[in-house]
Amino acid sequence: MRRRSLLIAVPAGLVTLAACGDDKSDSSKASDSASPSAPRTSEAPPPKIVDGPLPAITAGTKFDQKPTVAKGSGDPSEQLAVKTVIAGGGKTVAENDFVVAHYLGQIWNSGKVFDNSYDRGARLALPLTQGAIIDGWRYGLIGKKTGSRVQMAVPPTWGYGEQGNQQAGIKGTDTLVFVVDVKDTFNATSSAKGTEVAQDDTGLPEVGTGTDGKAPSIEVPDAAAPKKLVANYVIEGDGEEVGAEDSVLVQYKGVLWDGGEEFDSTYGRKQLTSFSLQQVVKGWAQGLTGKKVGSRVLIVIPPELGYGDNPPQGSKIKKDSTLVFSVDILAKL
């Protein structure tokens, strides 16, 4: 089992999209995105941001390289120490954004690395939302620019508190040192960007092409549902292709073929979703594999590649439903 991230929350909507009744689903990978590491809704006042002290980065000094960080020397600050090691020139990170980043975390006193995304070979999409991530990240990364490497020393007050994090070997007195490479940032209004593709097949749903952050329309035709999976570009981006084992950050909306009723939407929650393609129903996994980042994709999923006769409990999805999705692929992680 891969070690799960200590910082990421359960993806919103995963209950609806998660594969069920599929012997090939990988529960160990699903656990990678388990409980949020923020132990509670924070009640601590905002910290004072100070320049240091911070231990030296002794190797892997370039952006996106796995860093090696020296053990902390002397006593760490009781406030939040933040340093922009490499200044990027991209978008500015805001509160409640999903930040796409590589990171390494270690304990000040021992220098023990308790987690890093570089070895997993996949960036993480981290929500900078109160209660979903430790406050040190929220206060330390807001206002930074994409393309930046940021180093932080986070005392317990804005980390895991007095209870620490037993799974990671973090005590309630430990100051934590992080190096974060901020690749990109997205918010609830992020949309696909690319070239519109003609939607000529009148037997398939037509998806709206607006990119203003609002949920696109999905008009389902008065016709029989296709028997095979449909995965067509609505807007074709120019980013890298998504692989079958990749994780993605997306906006999406789902409706039923019969009646066109909406049953799930990140737009309605005003929160993006990230997940591994090995965690979701086969129709999603097959439909997004090979598609380019930045794209909007129409996916029509027949029952055998969706939920069949075992739909998610409490959802509007009925047995043997054909599902229609509009999916904006914002990032490959």
From TrEMBL:
Transmembrane feature ranges: none
Signal peptide: 1-21
InterPro entries referenced in this protein's UniProt entry, alphabetically: FKBP2/11, PPIase_dom_sf, PPIase_FKBP_dom
Class of the enzyme per the UniProt entry, highest EC level: isomerase
Domain PPIase FKBP-type: 96-186, 245-333
Pfam family, one: FKBP_C
Catalytic activity: [protein]-peptidylproline (omega=180) = [protein]-peptidylproline (omega=0)
Residue ranges of the region described as Disordered: 20-57, 190-218
Keyword entries, A-Z: Isomerase, Rotamase, Signal
EC number annotated for this UniProt entry: 5.2.1.8
MF (Gene Ontology): peptidyl-prolyl cis-trans isomerase activity
Ranges of biased composition (kind: Low complexity): 30-39
Name of the protein in its database record: peptidylprolyl isomerase
